[in-house]
């Protein structure tokens, strides 16, 4: 949803979205909320009030999974004491809400829908307001071009298609394997819990699903024979009845206040069920022999976050740790590789989302050229789900190359840690 707001409108919204206290700004937002639509040039925008749960707008709510254990792992640094997990709240029950006359779009940042004059978010456990607007990112955030507290401005777009019914799962960065495996597919798995009255509800899918076989095979497996409705890029698609399925992953949007953020969290029981479903579903592709149990997660580097991988692979091979390019494997082989692992090393990234399938006691050592934020704990949570020992290397292990999106891994520090891991 690429923004086409002109310069005058952008200046106005920039002024309005300033977070400093201002009677003038607050009064302007309230006035626009009452008037609903505003334009200064073309296109215009509408102001919506943000709500942190679809429940109060639902005509009916059903439970799909009882409340369960919450997993929210902090970053564990190699060589440092193990920190205590974050457990500020239990993971609530997972439900489906039936909304009437609602609209959704391919919001790649968080699950949201428009219902009347409100922008609805999935249940928030953190204190609001939440970070919904980021300058220049309207195309990834459902057309949100301004925010002040619990009010947002959404760019007016041509009307999309209208449907009688649909099942809404969100569309969080589905082009990224991590988010596909952690956000979209587990929510699609919960659709199987819906009763027969929802058999004629198509699943709403985003427009940018990759054609890669791993995406397409897992989608087809969990969909079964259910029909789909694909969202139109850059448009809000309307539904007379929208079945909003709550995800088993607590994710964005997070609180604007940094000290309120708790990070990504998992519903342990629901995610365990999802893991078992995929493990059994791709049983025919599994390969239990010929795959290494101690291995290096290698990537076909294409410039972005490139590093001295060949040196690292050579060091790893000296310790009997074999390089594997996971993207070359069939889905079942990939699951089997992780499921029979004892030791995995490599750079942090979406490939490590497959740690979901690793067994209890497996050990993982990763590194990353940037400091991880509380919301970057996706893979640590997935490792904790199965009892994996997961470490991130200290910042001293990597050095960024000036002016480039590449870095250098300290080979001596890597070799020292790998020697210790192999001995133990």
Features:
424 residues, alpha/beta, five-stranded parallel beta sheet, 9 helices
Mean pLDDT across residues? 88
Q: Give the helix tally.
A: 9
What percent of residues are in strands? Answer: 15-25%
Output the structural class.
Answer: alpha/beta
Low-confidence stretches: 38-42
Specify the biggest β-sheet. Answer: 10 strands, mixed
Q: Which term fits the overall shape?
A: globular
Give helix % range: 10-25%
- State the end-to-end distance: 51 Å
Tell me the Rg in angstroms: 23 Å
Would you give an account of this structure?
By secondary structure, this protein is of the alpha/beta class. It has nine helices and 22 strands. Strands 1, 2, 3, 5, 6, 7, 8, 9, 10 and 13 form a ten-stranded mixed β-sheet that branches. Helix 3 (177-190) packs parallel to helix 4 (213-223), helix 3 (177-190) crosses helix 5 (268-281) and helix 6 (309-318) runs parallel beside helix 9. The radius of gyration is 23 Å and the shape is globular.
């Amino acid at each position: 949803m690429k923004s086409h707001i002109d310069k005058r409108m952008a200046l106005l919204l920039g002024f309005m979205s300033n977070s400093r206290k201002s009677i003038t700004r607050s009064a302007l937002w309230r006035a626009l909320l009452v008037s609903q639509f505003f334009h200064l040039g073309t296109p215009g925008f509408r102001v919506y009030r943000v709500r942190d749960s679809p429940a109060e707008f639902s005509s009916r709510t059903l439970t799909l999974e009882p409340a369960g254990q919450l997993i929210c792992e902090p970053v564990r640094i190699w060589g440092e004491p193990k920190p205590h997990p974050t457990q500020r709240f239990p993971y609530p029950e997972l439900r489906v809400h039936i909304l009437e006359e609602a609209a959704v779009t391919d919001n790649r940042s968080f699950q949201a829908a428009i219902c009347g004059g409100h922008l609805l978010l999935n249940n928030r456990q953190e204190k609001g307001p939440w970070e919904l607007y980021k300058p220049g990112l309207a195309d990834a955030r459902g057309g949100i071009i301004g925010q002040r507290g619990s009010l947002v401005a959404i760019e007016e777009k041509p009307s999309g298609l209208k449907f009688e019914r649909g099942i809404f799962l969100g569309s969080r960065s589905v082009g990224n394997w991590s988010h596909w495996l952690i956000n979209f597919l587990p929510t699609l798995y919960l659709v199987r819990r819906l009763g027969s009255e929802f058999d004629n509800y198509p699943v709403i899918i985003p427009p940018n699903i990759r054609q890669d076989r791993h995406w397409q095979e897992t989608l087809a497996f969990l969909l079964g024979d259910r029909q789909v409705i694909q969202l139109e890029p850059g448009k809000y698609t309307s539904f007379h009845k929208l079945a909003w399925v709550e995800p088993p992953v607590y994710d964005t949007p997070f609180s604007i206040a940094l000290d309120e953020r708790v990070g990504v969290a998992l519903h342990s029981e629901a995610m365990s069920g999802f893991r078992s479903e995929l493990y059994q579903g791709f049983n025919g592709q599994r390969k239990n022999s010929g795959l290494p149990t101690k291995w290096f997660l290698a990537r076909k580097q294409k410039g972005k976050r490139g590093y001295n991988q060949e040196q690292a692979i050579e060091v790893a091979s000296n310790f009997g740790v074999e390089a594997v390019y996971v993207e070359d494997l069939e889905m079942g082989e990939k699951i089997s590789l992780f499921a029979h692992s004892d030791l995995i090393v490599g750079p942090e990234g979406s490939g490590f989302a497959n740690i979901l399938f690793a067994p209890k006691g497996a050990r993982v050592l990763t590194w990353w050229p940037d400091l991880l934020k509380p919301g970057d704990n996706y893979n640590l949570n997935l490792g904790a789900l199965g009892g994996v020992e997961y470490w991130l290397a200290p910042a001293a292990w990597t050095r960024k190359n000036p002016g480039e999106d590449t870095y250098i891994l300290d080979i001596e520090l890597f070799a020292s840690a790998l020697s210790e891991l192999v001995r133990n």
